Amino acid sequence: MLIKQFEQGRTFMAKLNQNSDLLEELNKICIDENITAGTINLIGAISSLKLGFYDQVTKQYIYTTYAYDEPMEIVSCTGNISLKDGKPFCHIHLIAADKKGKCIGGHLVQGTSVFAGEVCIQELLGEDLNRQPDKETGLTLWTE
Ligand code: ZN
Is this model's pTM higher than 0.90 or not? Predict the structure, then answer.
């Protein structure tokens, strides 16, 4: 297990631009504000949705299964910020509901279009939290 302790830093509230790419916008806020560690949560609505699912056997993300192209509510969207290749990197999971309330969820990837988004980011201050390729899982995970 890896445990690191942080102190609370700045808190940001942001309104996202319509038709922007959700993941790109979150990464842009972190890069622009130099947020190298933190937590993210947001609610809003999207006009299209693309999610990934990590296949633990093949160690590959599957994207097409969870690709949608219809308006949905963001019921919950949460994640964290750390460093990957020396730059702020957002790891985000999202649950979205269609007009009947049916939900789908997964790992957010590029290709989700914002209709409206209200973001809260809590910066965390401490030593660097870096991502490196992890042999056991095939994922890029936190390291010492
Ligand atoms: Zn994920």
Answer: yes
